[in-house]
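Hi R.,

Here's the chain you asked about this morning:
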Amino acid sequence: MKFNPFVTLDRSKNCKRHFSALLHVRRKIMSSPLSKELLLKYNVHSMPILKDDEVQVGIRPSKVIITSLKLDKDGKKILEHKAKLRQVGKEKGKYKEELIEKMQE
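And the predicted structure, written out as C-alpha cells:
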C-alpha cells in the first residue's frame, strides 16, 4: 500500500528514472560493498561499480559484493581519499600520549 502520494510505484517510471538519473545520483545508486579481502586491503567499505569489476551475486541481485576492482587513476584517487577520511575519523576525539604528558607538566 502506498502512503506517500508523491512517490510512484509504477515499474516503468521507476526504471526510467533509474537509468536516466544524473551521474552523481547514479554513482550513489550503483555502489556496492567490497569483499572482506578488499576491505582489509584498501580500508574502504564500498565503491561504485565500474565496467570491468567482478562482482559476486548472492541470492538477490541487489546484494552484490565486489570481489575484484578495476583500478584506474581515478579509482586509486577515490580509494586513497576514502581511506584517509576513515583514518582521520578513527583518530578524531582521541588524545595522544604526548599531549597528555604536556598537559600534566
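The chain has one domain: 31-104.

Let me know if you need anything else.
M.
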